[in-house]
Records
---
Amino acid sequence: MKLRRTLSTLPLVFILYFCTSGGPYTTEELVARVGPGLGLLILLLVPVFWSVPEALIVGELASMLPEEGGYYRWVYRAFGRFWAFQNGWWTWMYSLFDMAIYPVMFNTYLAYFFPHLTAGRQWIVALVVIWGATAINLRGALPVGRVSVVAGGLILAAFAAVVLSALPHIHHVPWAPFHAPEHAGVGAIGVALSLALWNYIGWDNASTVQGEVVDATRSYPRALAWGVPLVVLNYLVPLTAALAATDWAAWPGRPWPEIARMAGGGAGPALAVAVALGGMLSALALYNSLLLAYSRIPLAMAEDGMLPAAIAKTDRNGTPRNAVLFAALFYSAFALIPLEGLVVADVLLYAMALSLEFGALIALRRRAPELRGAFRIPVGDAGVTVMAAIPMAILVVVVGMEITQPDYGLPAVLGALGTAALGLVAYVAFERRPRGPGRPGPAVASGPPEQGKA
């Protein structure tokens, strides 16, 4: 059974929204670390120097090779089997960190209503989140897209209500004070930058499901064009309004529901409930969309003979059921891990995988100039190289800053690097498996994309 192309542009926009953002949740932690002005500045500059270059490069690659497996396929085509495996491995490793965050987030906002849940009950709730999202994914990509549209609309509406309610209570500029003196060290700024990067990374994630997107060579760049400004405004507008209407000194340690209560005046209590419910919905929708995206990596690797062939099978509805179940079982073991160290490791592993994708576009432009999709960055190879170098330079700076934070920054960086190094061992182990007659070979396209090919 072949995969079915059922996702149009609108569901893809909101799948991207939840593969990248999911709402302003966690931005309050960023602001609390470095202060209002510096926090807003970071959230404004990171998309300019990180998200825009990433979205443009990913848009061209997605338009050039709109295949199931997305970025894994791009790296395979550009650099071959070894580096494709490393890209898949790094992606799978950072997805373990990434997917552990969202059940924790769900429990954080659930605690607004039930503040005394034990650790055991929180783990049970986390499993409900994981397997609830799995049940939606087992129905196919289109239900995931529909859930993403509804969840995204509700979350945006909740924060729009916060903004409107905060406007009559604005009494000072939102960027004062510029920074918090007690949290202005290099390590704190590095962790704040990691939080900002984490809130803006993921524009390539949904590329793995391009075999299930209608007119993928056009739809993915179009979805990126809508998604990037949506996410930027989704962060900056609520934060700016809430900071201008509240005393920032009361923010540290308070999640968004409490901030909505402070900013909303008489409507504050109702807004706090809406934002807390939105936080739970966001965590579920984030997990739901990312399970869709991440489960397609073992699917593609299985098609190439790097994982058991059974993972690549699809059911009668064209859903890769085994790949979804394989991913969900794996993620269930990582449901409750502290957030801060996760974010640092997550960003580093993601950026390592992303560097291969950026390199893939440079290599494919030079080696296969006939590969052209509906979207192409209107600059030459040198311009693309510079565009790719900027986010990587930011990563180097951020990692250097994080290392100065000894309690979790340095251990997280070392752990991420060690995890990545295990990819070399894993590659040797997988490649030494017997190649039986039923073991598939590489499933990589050898020519330009065909429009509408299922």
---
Amino acid sequence: MGNIVSISTIGQDSHRFGDPEGDTKIRLGGIDIPFDRPIVANSDGDVIFHAITNAISGFTGVNILGAKADKICLEDGIKDSSVYLKKALEYMKEGRIIHCSLTIECLRPKLMDHIPGMKESIGTILGIPASSVGITATTGEDLTGFGRGEGIQVFALLSFVKEI
């Protein structure tokens, strides 16, 4: 038996909001959140799942967002970002995820009431307990476009263990 090492990777994604459309919803962390503006994206625009997918790509070395996601979304017509995340997980031949930490920057929508549902959804897909998913949110204090309500940005830090 070899040594166990801990590895961390970071992923990021951001999307802008479209024009107000009245009653609508956006998808974040696999759950629908009421909001009056859509996320502008080819897919469902789940920036949380996209950031996590990018962090997994940092571990596996296989980029999913880009050509692979474009085929799934644009050619196959699949808009569900959980499909991209699951595709990234297929490349995890070694190691396993033990923790996911997310920082979300947006002025709106307010996310506090939705964090428990997002943690459950993310934990289920990653195969870790919801208690191993940390989510913080900030308004950005009007310093960026995200802090001015123009869109949403997410940073994901994943921790893995791997035998070497």
---
Amino acid sequence: MSIEELEAKLKPGARAHLVGIGGVSMSPLAEVLYAGGIAVSGSDAKESAATERLRELGIPVTIGHFAKSVRGSDLVIRTAAVRDDNEEIAEAKALGIPVFERAEAWGHIMRSYRDAICIAGSHGKTTTTSMVAQILLAANVDPTVMIGGTLPSIGSGYRVGHGRAIVLEACEYYDSFLKFFPTVAVVLNVDDDHLDYFGTFERVKASFAAFANLAPPEGTIVCNADDADTMDALRPLGRELLTFGFDAGADVRGEHERPEGQGVSLDVLYEDRVYCRLKLRVPGHHNVMNALASAAVAIALGLPGEAVEDGLRDFMGAGRRFEFKGKINGADIFDDYAHHPSELKALLDMTLALPYERVLLAFQPHTYSRTATHFDAFAEQLKRPAATFLAEIYAAREKNTYNVTSADLARAIPGAVHCATFAELTDKLAAEARPGDLILTVGAGELDTVGAELARRGEEANTPDAPV
């Protein structure tokens, strides 16, 4: 289906059915369409906070996929993980109801904005999109925002604004971001992820290059000068690039990075002058790089450095990005979405430098394909904490055709403990926790429920609920 066909269908009064409506970018899409006068319904494989919220808004959601759910719809929109053999998709096609991809719908929405800022990268998309959103809010741009997580300052993963700009995550999986229409295309980094789809790292790089090239000649490509793979992918385009990093040749350059409390401060230079001075409340060099990317976006939009300073001064991170959950037995509990070895490394580099006596890591691998492909790299990182606990692999869209388990991973890590259930994992962490510990629950699956349960037990025991 073409963007013109989608635009002809997606008008106020139309009936749109969303398959996979509870997903991190599908649920905000449902809300944005509903707010625009579209009659929205949807389905998902399971109940979630997102499906509950949609029902509260008046959007009917069915749990399970049934052919009858699409009948009467003018169009169907599906998430990238839903394929043609899904019962609802098959029925829609049999009835002649047009089926569109989620990314096509977001692409349609962003065409109505003067500035469409699309944040791509193997890692850091949610945090950087959140940072850019706060900068735009500080600059009174009144942006529309779509984040693959929750931004505490807006209390949601999305915001419908009335200004000239939209900022959203641009995911590479299934080449979804190639359906977008960015005026500012951001590439934070390029890594060998989603090889179950791409097959080779060269195809990953080619996809990011194609995404960057979607920016029009009058638009801007923002990219990471410090990441060799990003530059290898984008230099052959022959396009002007607005680079960020600490590399001496970066257009937007960080200098004088130094710890400040549990955060970081640094100067941001552009055209060899100080553009802004940042004081970040989130730790870690990876967050410094996210902040530099956000500053580069602000420069591309012609915003003053003061907006970057004001927007990031109180930035405390996005949901599930080193998010404080509570305390138990005097130990601090944080949750993080890291699910690739590079993300684990960045998280552990940051947390092992913090003033805790021990780091206890509970990790839930995400998908069999990623676990098998990066098995040795995962094992190398998971050896670093004082203690590592492994939950069962979160299958997501896959079946275990890779013949890999969390128990296999545990055997490759000295002292690691494999837990068959979340209940067992929660009990083991609670028994091990002591003052001076940092407990990390990590992964893109459902492991955050363990952190929440530990925090609940801590509250019941009248444990103080603020981090040290």
